[in-house]
Write a structure and sequence with these properties.
Elements (H helix, E strand, L loop, with lengths): L5 H4 L1 H13 L7 H12 L4 H14 L11 H5 L19 H18 L3 H15 L8 H17 L3 H15 L7 H20 L8
Amino acid sequence: MKIFPAEQMGYFDAIQAYFLELTGRGAVLSGRDVRLLVDWRDRGADVAQICKGLEQAVRELHQPPRDIFACRYYVEDEVPKPAAIPKAEPVVITDDDDLKTETLSRIEAAGKKADREAFKEAYRDCWRRVSELNAAEDIIPELLDIEDLLLDAYWAGLKLAEQRKVLEQIQTEIESFRSMSDAARAQHELARRRKLLQEHYELLPLLDL
């Protein structure tokens, strides 16, 4: 099965798309899923290693796993062990209050840097939504939802010619995935749209730190 390239889709989206292709289930990342993925990435794991573990889990479990967390023991066999890498100071999401504060700061900075009013308004709405989150709870699933809303608002702020150019690039790239299911294709297109807006229009990723 073909692994979707992380450089085109982003780390989280590439793993989500692969999980969907393996199981037929569109995985909505939970807070514990994201924490696992961040931990594995900080330990030096790449998308291919994680996907190998997911594939092994699907082969060996009696029922298709419901989420990435259910595959964790199989993925752990593929990713670098904590003791095998030198000490560093990776980005680790541990405290939702700190995460909320950091996210608000990054949104504010991105809004000030934005070069058109539609983008600034998108960041204002994003900042408001994040500020209303209860940091005493797991805010990561809600941050993922807010990130999708930010993407939609950013997309609406593009000119039609800019939107057309992005869509044409995605369609050209996706020709190499002829065996992709309709659901995975839709997820791939969304991920590529997000990635291209990050690269060319400075869309802020809320969680892909």
